[in-house]
Design brief:
The protein is mainly alpha-helical and 546 residues long. The chain has 22 helices and 8 strands.
Amino acid sequence: MTRENIGREILAGVTLLAIAIPLNIGYAQTAGLPATAGLYALVFPAIAYTFVVSSRQVVVSPDAAAAALVFSSLTALGVAGENFAVMAAAQAVLSGAMFIVASLLKLGFLASFLSKPILIGFVGGLALDILVSQTAKMLGISVARGGEFVEKAGELLGSLAEVNPWSLGMSVLAIAILLGGRRLAPIAPWALVVLVLGSLATWWLNLESRGVAVLGEVTAGPPTFAVPHISVAEWLSLIPSALALTMVTIAEGLLVSRSYAEKNGYRTKPNRDLFAFGTANVIAGLFSSFAVGSSTSRTAAMDAASSRTQLPTLVTAVGALLLLLFGTSILATIPAPAIGAVVAVAVVRLLGLGELKALWAQSRSECLVGASCFLGVLVLGPLGGLGLAFVLSLVNLARRAAHPRIDLLGPADGSPEGAETVFAARSDLGETAPGVVILRFAAPVFFANGVEIAEGVKDRVRLAPVEVSAVVLDLEGVSDIDVTGAEALAGVREWLERRGLSLSYSRARSELRGRLAHFGLTERTAMFATNREAVDTLRTDTECAG
């Protein structure tokens, strides 16, 4: 921090405050919580986060996906009334504890278990569910808050005759300002402009008497410390949803952190960032807020404002605290249609339809995983959709691993003879060298593919157009072998020996050599450092035998 950039960072903080207030109010309502829950998240959780996180830019806050997941998971448990806020706070504490454990155990790699297709589908499904609720709010229609997507969508369509024209008109104007303003001045806080103009219009035209819903009274005062008092059974019931919140934030948060660090030339510490997310969530739960994570849109806004520190988050925390202390009365007249428009415009970009289209062009199987997660969230709920996507991903992974490509290696075109020979996959050859076949497969040998690999090796020998006396397995691409895979390789060795053929290995890593020895697979086999050495040795043996 220098004198030259402190002014820029403070200005970025004011911008962040203007962006965060309307979004956090909207996301708190999406989560089924009072507006104060969203504002509380901007104070103590954010302050603690800034002093722990390694990223200079990632903004911590509730987001649309987390808010929807909080609401849907708690309503699925039958939570209602005053207990709803307590359970949401407990859920945040539990998620924070999971983050901290993941940090201490250095489990940042778990983010890889939520692939890009799963994230696209999961967040897209939640976004569409949110859009239905926000559309009802923009039209002045009341729908069942705890219903499933299909139920809410049907109720919305069946109530279109009850549209409030004043709510509809305000929503159309709000969306026009948000979308038009984004093009004219992207950095301007158009969401705040919409809420201010909406509040003024509501007061001036007395729209509340015309059926336009407003936010209502917002409790004044700072966040207060309160440990969630719930039963052990209730804590246990929150574990699945807290785990889902944690996994999604790990995947998204670490990805956002890494991408901005690479873009702007600084390093981050993933496990430290996990600890920061954990600290923020625990404090959020202890101060009557709900689950927080990385905010991609706000981080992008700070990057566009040339912010390179966490000072804007501290400025926002101070501003939010002042608002809670002295300005909650001005929030009471904020119209619900304006809040709905702000949230709808924010989440429509999360639908992921463009990303799914791109996935279809790149990999149809992965696109189907993403689409299944999208539909699963809508039909089965967020946790059911996420579980379905995990199962489909594992099936897809097992399908790929069960059918590894087996290549016959031969001298590459143009490769020199002798020690400098480079071996490559050759579909036009029947053998690597006279009497010698070198086969390569790049996959761990385990229960899902051991038999497939064994049969592939046998087929190569059976179908060879020339007589083969030695088979070499190039194991450079093999990272591990399990008991079932070892039995399959032992079966190959016995099958070759019954036909008078030898089995050898080449280019095996030291760890894999240890595993092979452990399973007894190095007995009656040779181990070569290179394919060239294998060819020279085995060809000489073949010539001598001849």
